[in-house]
Amino acid sequence: MWIESFLNYLQLERNYSPRTIRSYGDSLLTFEKFFKRNNETAEWNTVDSDVIRNWVMEMTDSGAQPTTVNRNLSALRSFFSYLMRIRAVEVNPATKVKGPKKAKPLPYFLKESETDRLMDSVLYPTDFNGLRDRTILTLFYETGIRLSELEGLNCTDVDLISCQLKVLGKRNKQRIVPFGPELKSLLEQYQAERGSHCEPIECALFINGKGQRLNKGSIEQLTHKYLSMVTTIKKRSPHVLRHTFATQILNHDGNLEAVKELLGHESVATTEIYTHTTFEELKKIYKQAHPRS
What we know:
Blueprint: H1 2-12, H2 18-38, H3 49-61, H4 66-85, H5 112-120, H6 128-143, H7 147-151, E1 158-159, E2 164-168, E3 174-178, H8 181-194, H9 216-227, H10 238-251, H11 256-263, H12 268-271, H13 275-289
Antiparallel strand pairs: 1-2, 2-3
């Protein structure tokens, strides 16, 4: 009775989609079967947080994904909130139960042999666009900046004497990122040719065929095109080069705090996702060197 009333409430007062309402109904009926299976006399107003925790454990043990478990928990929380609203229960026991954390996917990144091919072996077109594309990819790889940050670069943000970029990151936070001699040489060549392809008033560093700022979509397309020449990984976006930048620095004994600053992360915890690759390197060394491994 309460479940049916709740689902009608979702439809008529909350305007939920039929699919969501059906999903909520399935979750609630499944949980009702669970607690009645363990106690035939149990009712919704006798359910406590321990019963819900046991259900979470049962779902997890049976192989349910964290997203499924959390979706079911969300349905329970909403239902008990409704029961409190109609004064059928006094507390919401589901609010005291935490669902499993969703595993963070590991970042896609290039192997060092793949980055070597991207930098040294790919035959870029010999025209202005080819020089621009190579400069963009090298800049992504050497600095680890974000797509939006590269798109927003202006000519005045490049200091070829000090070999550094002025980057405007998230929340308009500015940082300085260094780069090496290879990128310096490409930027010098690119800027020398750029002037003949756009109006003097155009401030954007990277431009399209019309002499206007190159947009994110075009940058993503050219990145996908060239990464497809050197790797078979599923994702081939500018962010892959950002991941590659961080991963390879850490694999070559780079300092985690320094990588955090270079990437423009607020917290070192965000940067720690890249340490998985250094651990993989340690495992390789262990297997090669330990006599009983």
